[in-house]
Design goal:
With 230 residues, this protein is of the alpha/beta class. The chain has ten helices and eight strands. Strand 2, helix 5 and strand 3 form a beta-alpha-beta unit.
């Protein structure tokens, strides 16, 4: 697979204010949407893409319905929802309500994923909207997370991390998908994934309303009647 096909460097989409309508909130994305973000045409096609008895993890799954719906469609696979927020019993209860038996909820820190699981464990590692703030605010931890994902993925397994922020102003994109293979330059790929999942400085403030010293100001990108939080 060439670098261009891995990262999908097509013509970069032009910036559109559309992104400001969709401030992501944990659990706000449907399973179907996440399947499409990870490259499938729909949820059913996504669920059928796994080999029999595949072992799959979603890192930073939060309250997402993704694992539960895929797990229900494919009772033969084992799916792990991994998130540090599951150490809160209330969040764990909300997230795991109605979970099928083949979906497990694990509380843990993504930077230590490689300490939780043996190398070469998962047929597929998925992650959506875990990286953008970490990649932008703390690239060292972000790199640790991506490296850990490659470590726990099987050789021949898939690592799919998103959203890819083509110009950092468009964070709602599809995931960056890489097949883990022998001899792969993990350092280079990790670096590229961290770079290409960073959310722009302007959007960082918008997506973190609790950000200290914020003040409302005009966005340089939006028309004069739209405002954003900085
Ligand atoms: C914006 S939510 C994304 C949820 C889901 N993947 C989606 O796309 O709807 C990000 C999740 O990452 C989790 N998270 C952030 N940092 C983490 C870390 N270091 N280890 C594990 N989970 C983390 C948060 O608890 C939160 O549930």
């Amino acid at each position: 697979m060439t670098e261009a096909s891995v990262f999908g460097f097509e013509t970069p989409p032009r910036f559109t204010p559309r992104v400001f309508k969709g401030i992501p909130v944990t659990g706000s994305r449907s399973a179907e949407e996440l399947a499409c973000k990870h490259g499938a045409s729909d949820l059913a096609t996504f669920a059928m893409s796994f080999p029999e008895e595949a072992y799959v993890i979603d890192v930073g799954a939060g309250l997402s319905p993704f694992g539960n719906e895929v797990g229900a469609a494919r009772p033969d696979i084992k799916w792990v929802n991994f998130d540090h927020s599951y150490s809160d019993p209330g969040i764990l209860e909300d997230a795991s309500r109605d979970a099928p038996a083949n979906v497990e909820y694990v509380a843990g820190d993504a930077t230590k994923l490689n300490e939780e699981y043996e190398p070469n464990t998962f047929d597929a590692v998925y992650s959506y909207w875990l990286m953008p703030h970490i990649s932008a605010n703390d690239p060292v931890s972000a790199a640790r997370i991506v490296r850990a994902m490659f470590t726990v993925a099987k050789i021949g397994g898939l690592v799919s991390v998103g959203p890819r922020t083509v110009d950092a102003n468009n964070p709602q994109g599809k995931s960056i998908r890489v097949m883990n293979h022998e001899g792969m330059d993990v350092g280079f790929l990790t670096d590229r994934i961290v770079t290409h999942t960073q959310v722009a400085e302007s959007l960082r403030h918008l997506f973190q309303p609790q950000y200290p010293n914020r003040k409302v100001t005009r966005s340089p990108y939006l028309n004069s009647r739209r405002r954003m939080v900085r």
